[in-house]
Amino acid sequence: MIQEKFKFYKPCKLLQPYVRYYWVFKSNQFLNTLTFPIGCPQIIFHKQAPLYIPELNAAQDELTISGQVNFSSHLYADGNIEMIVVVFHPHAMSMFLNIPTSLFYNQEVSGYSLENKSLNELATRIFDCENNSICISYIEKWLVSQIADNLVTIQRIEYNQVGQQQF
Questions:
Q1: Residue 24: enclosing H or E segment and its boundaries?
Q2: Using the 8-state DSSP alphabet, how is residue 75 labeled?
Q3: Which helix (H) or strand (E) holds 146?
Q4: Which residue, among 7, 42, 35, has the nearest Cα to 23 in the 3D structure?
Q5: How far apart are CA 77 and CA 133, in angstroms?
Q6: What is the model's pTM?
Q7: Among candidates 62, 78, 77, which has minimal Cα distance to 110?
Q8: What is the Cα–Cα distance from 68 to 91, expressed in whole angstroms?
Q9: CA distance 61 to 50
Q10: DSSP code for 113
Q11: Residue 108 DSSP SS3
Q12: Which sign, positive or negative, has the C-alpha torsion 64, 40, 119, 47?
């Protein structure tokens, strides 16, 4: 029996300025589809078969950082697809990876090549978890933890600016 399932998740309020949405796709059939650029970088967790993109002559890794692209592309997979995708607002991904988003432009990069220990640990948790709603909560906790220090710094700057304006 052919089964396909798409599900979208809205980010928590704190992450909405950075994350557009999350989506989960599951399918047990061969995939051959054309996609169009959305202008947003993504972190992709492939729990099963990864995707192949002939325009880049690249297969995505199980943990993939997908940069912004300026071209339509085909996606192929041999079936048994299960993937969770974090879709960022343009330029927002760099806040979480501490790498300029522009370095990923028109590229699919293995997330493991970033040598980001906390991202690798998150991937392990995702791949070991069968409930994708729980996976989304793991992702949100990780994202918040990555920007917590940045948010405290921003709040201090804003507080200091407000305090200085009163004098």
A1: strand 19-27
A2: E
A3: helix 132-165
A4: 7
A5: 23
A6: 0.87
A7: 62
A8: 9
A9: 6
A10: G
A11: strand
A12: negative
135 near 85, Cβ under 8 Å? Answer: no
Radius of gyration of the chain (CA): 17
Tokens (6 digits) for 86: 């974090």
Among candidate residues 105, 139, 111, 110, the one with its CA nearest the CA of residue 37: 105
Residues 104-152: tens digit of each pLDDT:
999 999 999 999 999 999 999 999 999 999 999 999 999 999 988 666 6
**Residue 130 is encoded by which pair of tokens?**
């069968």
Q: Which residues pair with 66 in a beta bridge?
A: 42, 108
User: pLDDT for 49-63, tens place per residue?
Assistant: 999 999 989 999 999
Which tokens hold the place of 45?
Answer: 């967790």
Is residue 95 a contact partner of residue 146, using CB atoms and an 8 Å limit? yes
Q: Under a CB-based contact definition with an 8 Å cutoff, are residues 135 and 111 in contact?
A: no
